[in-house]
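Hi, here's the filled form for the chain we discussed.

Project: internal
Contact: R.S.
Residues: 363
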Amino acid sequence: MEGRKKKERGTDGFLIFLVLLLVVCGLIFLYSTSAYNGRVKFHDSAYYFKKQLFATSLGLMGMYLVSFMDYHFLVKMAPFFYGVSLVLSLAVLLFGEEYNGSKRWLSLGPLSFQPSEFSKVAVILLLAWMIIRGKEENRGILYMAGRMMILLPVVGLVGTNNLSTAVIILGIGVILIFVSNPRYLPFVGIGAGGIVFIAIFLGVASYRLERLAIWRDPEAYEKGFQTIQGLYAIGSGGIFGKGLGSSLQKLGFVPEAQNDMIFSIICEETGLTGACLVILLFGLLIWRLMVTATHAPDLCGSLIAAGIMAHMAIQVILNIAVVTNTIPNTGITLPFISYGGTSVLFLLGEMGIALSVSRQVKG
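And the returned structure, exactly as it came back:
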């Protein structure tokens, strides 16, 4: 009975609260941002909101069910999940649907989804599986390079049409290997190799080099329109914003404002204050995942929580950096807030895995 009480104290209520708060805020901001586009394109101002609400409902049910699963079982299935992610990523290249110039979706009848979102989860579980099976004394530069090489097939397949997700997967790999290794010097070599790989990857496609040019001078290119309008939205919001629902830039000036650029509309409607509060929520969520990783009952749980933390941190940083034109446009969504059913579904699934780890923390 005492052991059971200890296990129950491990359930992270604060993590659940943060996830639910982000989900609710995301739905509110999404409705405000997408109402105009929904009305113009589909004659329904709640079109995007209803689709996102449906995906979020499924995701919350999935999070609840996954939180009661033993994460060790999921890790044992990691090679299978990784294999499925490779097959789905290859299917995207062969049969994928193209939208806004990017082929990232697979369609099954009326439903469509992005396999790259599943690949992120599969990579976290696969790396945890590989690391716990390895011997600690053998974790040198060759060990780390070998583990990163295993990720290259999915990185290559996903990165063909989705460079940002490929960067996230590489980032997750580096952070998990870093967490599992007591030595720091080998990461200098890993970092140098990563820079060379990204440079080659950027150079093999002209549109990626064009993005770099647009980033340096968005006013000189027609495709820099979205970036410029996003910056106008951020600047016009001031300290406290124009008020929820009062954005002007979402009225067709920022293309597809409910997707990658939703943070700019948040800045316009709620100002610097609202933007900082959103960043604070993400910061608290990342901190809570770090706490879960630190207090996990074993290395496997620590690696899973650290991988989910890495995914969340990298994606938030990349999205906000793109919106503020700190880095070139990469087409990455803001977790829980940007429109995307597949994204929110798998993000909530990841939160369920993190809760599964926290449930086994001894009080």
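Let me know if anything looks off before we file it.
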